[in-house]
Every structure is written in C-alpha cells, then in structure tokens.
C-alpha cells in the first residue's frame, strides 16, 4: 500500500481508506448501502489491515450513530494500529441544537462520537457541511480547543464550496487556529466538478482530497451497461435520488472506455476507475466501501499498478464536460491560468 501525506500536514494516510457507511443499515438510505454487523466488520477490517489500509472513515449520522459504534467495537484491541476519521454537523435528531457547527454542538457531538468509537481521540475530524449560521471564528476556535484538549488531532471539511473553505483558511491563519488539511469531496470519472475550483484551491493551500463515492454513486461498479436495466440488487433503485444526477449517454460513454481498458489490462471497471483517481492531483486517499469480502478484495486491486498515460488520456476525454462559468472562460487564458489536470 502506498502512503501519502494528508494535504500539507505531516500525517501519512494510505492511498485507499475504508468508508464505513455500510455499517449498521439503519434508515432507508443506509440500509440500501449495507447492513454490516460487528462480526462482519471485524472480518473486513482484518482484510484491510492485511492490505495496509489503516484509515477508517465514518460519521455521526451514518445509521444514526450505529456506524461509529460498530467501528469502535470492531477495532477493540487494535486502535493504536489505525487512523479513525469521523464527521459531524448534519442534524442528528430533533433536539434544536443537535445540528451545525456551533460551539455547543461540536463539543457535544465530538464527546458522543468518542464514546461510540470507544476511543479518547479522533485522528481526523471533518465538518460534514458548511454552517452559514455560525461564525467561522466560533467554529475554528472550538476546533482549536478540541485539538488542544487532545480529542482531535487533525481537522478537515466535507462538501464545502471554494469560498467556504478559503474563508475558513484565512480565519485560521489570522488567529492561529489549526488549518484544515483535508477536504472529503465527491470526485469520480463521472463527477469531475471538484477539478474546477476545489482542486486548484487544494494545490494552492495544501488541502488534500479524501475522495468519497469514487465509483460515481454506484454507477461505475461494472454492472451498468448501455441498453441494459439497472441490476435488481443495485442500491441505485433506492438511492439514485439522493446522489448526483448523471445523464445516461454520458455514463455509457465513460463505461464504454472503461470496458475497453478492462480488456487491455485484465483489470475490472471499478479498479480502473479507482486507479484513475489515484493519479489525480491533490488526492491523498480514496474511500472504498464494501458490503462483503468479495467487493472489498476487488477494490483493493486498484493499487500496485498504474494506467498508462494514453489510457488516462482516453478516460479524461470520455469523461470531459464543459465547465460552468467562470471556469469555461478561464480555459481561454490557460497561458497564465493553467488547469491542474
């Protein structure tokens, strides 16, 4: 397993990390993802550790805390061998203050996550979304307190826009608060919006990408083909409306190229899609998920080899879309404003 620095920090993370959204299966969305229990989680973690995958990502809202609880139980006796990443800010329950990034909620939710995870520190704590109703200085001063208390070691964000992240970094620099070193972001061959602004920002400011849903919300599993119905067991039947829309013809165009490269390399469609991501700028780690051992082992096959430059170029071309303004306009000034990819 290759290890990479998490953004501009001194912390090294594996190129592949394991996302535990499949742990628990509580609620319609997460039940469609998976219903992994503690014994199954232990087995999957065993496989991960054998392969050098040492970072495990969760969130307080995943199965209403069950994902954190199962992960904590499954990691008993080996916490010192792993990195644990979790997230908060989305509404947890109906209590008025159990949402957002206020000082009240962040302190409360970190303590609750530590209890469920059965640990006294979180290696990477990320804000799951931007809270426009809480001053950025309040958010960052609270995270600073939690770092100083030893409850959090590194901080990051998820689902922020460029100005959300840059404003936060500016405030951190102004007051000496810890800088965000990670951006847990949606990025895939069929979702390349990250490249327009967040990737250049990450390069400039030293923020590493922790990629979620690298298989395009389950569309790049190798089971979806032109002229064929979505497989009966696909989670897309229940979760498509939650995720990013993808035009059918665009998806099939990308899958056609993935299929061709699969023939050339002997690799699977998911392995190729993951390997493409691992060659992109700013990517520190890619989160893989799995309902079972077979899926996990297949995803682990994305490392230890690389697509050729010619294969990458073909995938780039097949997945290219015209950016929104001002990014399409900036493409005409590439001499002084080059694209990062």
UniProtKB/TrEMBL annotation:
InterPro entries: AKR (IPR020471), AKR_Detox_Biosynth (IPR050523), NAD(P)_OxRdtase_dom_sf (IPR036812), NADP_OxRdtase_dom (IPR023210). The keyword Glycoprotein does not apply. GO terms for molecular function: oxidoreductase activity. Pfam families: Aldo_ket_red. Residues 16-319 form the NADP-dependent oxidoreductase domain. Keywords: Oxidoreductase. It comes from the Bacteria. GO terms for cellular component: cytosol. This is Aldo/keto reductase. It comes from Trinickia dabaoshanensis. The lineage of its organism: Bacteria, Pseudomonadati, Pseudomonadota, Betaproteobacteria, Burkholderiales.
